[in-house]
Write a structure and sequence with these properties.
Length: about 400
């Protein structure tokens, strides 16, 4: 059994690792603590290079078919509607998918699980919570507890920790997510209200300033996701009350009958990263290794970029190359996570948290000038679409 790779976590990153390793003929066991696939509100934005990568697995086309193609995104003043619009056609020569795709993370996981269920050499155990990990020079033993309380241990040549922000794998090897947590709590609400019919020139992805603060509107095939914040002097508990969420939606578009709120949940935002993506025969990817603000939609995409980079190297090591090749994974991905993904997400968040009207206007004018200049727009879109970061990572030896 140790002639396999154990992947802990059956989210987008873990399942992508399973598909990539299985394609290379490597036996894979995926351990997932939950019994059911998550259906809560998670990532929904797919960037162009991520879709290019998924083409390698034959997954881009079905994902695009299930989602909403989004050729433009914007930063917008509300209620005036004045905006800076960025058109990804400017980077059409650099990618096979010159757009963002809006599609729920769970759709991707469903596609992958269906594919993996028919793939030889891949086993998925749900309800298997990792409780410990020990490694030697040539193998890793992973202890787990099933949902019925029974326990067991399984061995592998390598372990990939793709088990998210509260990673048991990361804790087991003594790595820490260093960084900070932002003071505000974001409230994510969904509604079927057709904002596109009421706000002129709206894109499918919109980051908005208003007199009360900031909000974002992200469109999906069947609903809109709205990111909201507590008003000044309002507690998170008060802001989560249906009446408070309703009042915030009414400030965006007032309607007599009120907005239908399908779901709402709070979440805290972090910027954190581990010192090293590898500890012996254990490797980390995705949220287990780094966390960033969701502003700009780079978290899940960055995790998938980890998966492709890591599995390309692990496949070569499996075939007999020196295991030191795996250190290149961390050398390439960690600085990009820190200097590109976390930093860009922080910049996006800081921009939208600005309250001074004059500074907002100056920022908007600069963004409009960038969008109107073909050279500046191309450079800006290559960076915000994560293409620049991938190219810089590839240059690191």
């Amino acid at each position: 059994m140790q002639e396999q790779v154990i992947i802990v976590g059956a989210g987008p990153v873990g399942l992508s690792c399973a598909a990539l390793l299985a394609r290379a003929g490597i036996p894979v066991l995926v351990l997932e603590a939950t019994l059911e696939r998550g259906r809560d509100l998670r990532a929904s934005t797919w960037h162009p290079p991520t879709l290019d990568m998924l083409d390698e697995l034959g997954l881009a086309a079905p994902l695009v078919a299930a989602g909403l193609i989004t050729p433009t995104w914007q930063v917008r003043m509300h209620p005036s509607g004045e905006r800076a619009v960025f058109d990804l056609a400017a980077i059409a020569s650099e990618t096979g998918h010159p757009y963002r795709l809006q599609c729920e993370q769970q759709v991707f996981c469903e596609l992958l699980e269906t594919r993996l269920a028919e793939t030889p050499g891949v086993t998925l155990w749900r309800g298997a919570e990792v409780t410990g990990l020990e490694q030697s020079a040539d193998r890793v033993s992973v202890a787990f507890r099933r949902a019925d309380g029974s326990t067991g241990t399984v061995a592998a040549a390598w372990v990939i920790g793709a088990d998210g922000a509260r990673s048991r794998v990361r804790d087991a090897v003594g790595l820490q997510l260093e960084g900070s947590t932002y003071p505000e709590t974001t409230i994510l609400a969904t509604t079927t209200f057709p904002f596109e019919d009421h706000l002129e020139g709206l894109s499918n992805v919109n980051y908005c300033w208003s007199a009360e603060g900031t909000f974002s509107l992200l469109r999906l095939p069947r609903l809109w996701r709205v990111s909201l914040y507590a008003d000044e002097g309002e507690t998170v508990e008060q802001a989560l009350a249906p009446a408070s969420i309703q009042a915030k939606l009414q400030r965006i578009v007032p309607i007599r009958q009120g907005h239908e709120i399908l779901e709402a949940r709070p979440y805290r935002i972090h910027q954190r990263i581990v010192d090293d993506y590898r500890r012996g025969r254990v490797l980390l990817a995705g949220d287990a290794a780094h966390l960033n603000s969701p502003s700009g939609g780079m978290g899940m995409n960055g995790g998938l970029h980890d998966a492709f980079n890591l599995c390309a190297r692990l496949s070569r090591v499996w075939q007999g190359e020196d295991a030191a090749l795996l250190d290149q994974y961390g050398r390439q991905r960690r600085p990009i996570a820190q200097e590109q993904i976390i930093a860009q997400a922080h910049q996006n968040r800081t921009r939208m948290q600005e309250r001074d009207p004059a500074r907002r206007l100056a920022t908007l004018r600069d963004l409009q000038a960038t969008a109107a200049d073909p050279v500046r727009a191309r450079d800006y879109l290559l960076r915000t679409s994560m293409i620049t970061g991938l190219r810089e990572a590839a240059s690191i030896t």
